């Protein structure tokens, strides 16, 4: 088994969850702020 | 190969964009353009009615004093504020509203800074955050100037304010005199005071409040983000400088020691050698590789063992078809490079083992040079000097420069520190005893060469570098191929570093220098360096463009000079240096991507498999020119 490899799959699930949360949070954040300012513009 | 993680790139790119916006907004809000008086429509008021309109605030010192005067006179006024100033002093703005005065907007950064609707939106967002309101009072109507910017004499100021006996009086609350004028006007008989508008500000929408919170945070903390950027850049610059100094100092020392050694050379060491060539789908290159090894001028026996690791392109047949003396071909099902190497080592009959990739060309003297350090019984492994054999095109030149200015120079430094972490798969030699000590080649990592070298060093063997032992290897010819190769190297190196992390607390050079060197220059520096590029971009677009250009040029010159020195040390022409500046804006960023992707893959725990790189079999820059395919 290679170094770093997730044996149980739990780490991958957690990492994906974090990835999705951060990415979607940032997308919503950018959309709201950008949308408000661009809308006004 | 399981699908490698990609989603983080959206987060990283968006995160960087957000950070860039934060620092840019911070810089934008700090600029104060010349105020421009708003040419508003006339607001008809009855005779003897005055509406006081204050501008320039909120000001932490003078606005409270103005409010005090208004309170004492029992007068309500309208304060035309700027959004940036409200963000700086929200408490003062709240006090204005709390005392029953109206709030209007003069602009975002200065009076009149609302010609662009975006600035008006930013000013409204600032109000929304500080006061929770959205005002329709945008820009003052036509005003009677009190003259409080030009005159000091109170009699003159009062006369000017009352010259029309009615109207909106223009005053300022960012100075002492505005409040004093109010006090005097309140004493004038026959006048009453009104607000510019009776319209009450409406509650701000939740979106406007959120945007306001973000812009306020950006305006206030952009400096902090900038300071963090600056710290990261400082560390990156220090690391870069340290590496350059080490390169120049240690590489020079290493060369000097070699020159001194060459004046009194030790007796030529000529042990019998087994060369192990693991190969998977190397039909295009294997013939040239084996021929070049077989053509060695070593003074003792050299056997060549080609281990075909389940190739599907006829690699074994090509090698066998050469029918060269001393060349043995072993076939096995596809089990990976470490297994192929171990099979070759088991079949080898000599104690000095040269391990070489199936896409590499040896010079006639390479084998002989490579084994010289084994004259010292403490040396367990020797790294040769891998050179790019296909330097045509920008990608080939860039890799050639990187091999010389990066890998080989690094190796000289690390040789001087006695902690070379990688004997490259392209050209390296091991003592059988050292290999036995570490249990052979492990498949724990994708960088089996780094893993093996670290293990050998930790086992107490010395690893030497022999720059005269040159081997010419085929570098990837496409960006995708380069990415795949470097992804594997980088990820494999991280795996090896993690596997051998205990070396950090062990006695010996590997922990003290080797892993720390890799951590600093192969992990931390590539992670911090993009911030530097971002900062330069920020400098060009937002801040001081000439200064950014100077800083960037100085760094580029230092790096180019360092690369030139590396080429000289390696006995190479300086001609390819012209491609070096271009390398800084494309190739370097690709390397960051590789490091970040490797780190994220490690965090995800994804199982990566060997990623093969497409071969062309054209090593035009290797000795002998075009390599015959069969």
Automatic annotation (TrEMBL), chain A:
Origin superkingdom: Bacteria
Transmembrane segments: 17-40
Keywords: Membrane, Transmembrane, Transmembrane helix
Protein's recorded name: Uncharacterized protein
Origin species: Lentzea flaviverrucosa
UniProtKB/TrEMBL annotation, chain B:
Ranges annotated as spanning the membrane: 224-246, 515-541, 547-569
Name of one Pfam family that matches: Glyco_tranf_2_3
Residues covered by the NodB homology domain: 45-105
Entry keyword set: Glycosyltransferase, Membrane, Transferase, Transmembrane, Transmembrane helix
Organism domain of life: Bacteria
One Gene Ontology term of the molecular function aspect: transferase activity
Matches recorded under PANTHER family: POLY-BETA-1,6-N-ACETYL-D-GLUCOSAMINE SYNTHASE
Family (UniProt): Belongs to the glycosyltransferase 2 family.
Protein name per its UniProtKB record: Bi-functional transferase/deacetylase
Origin species: Lentzea cavernae
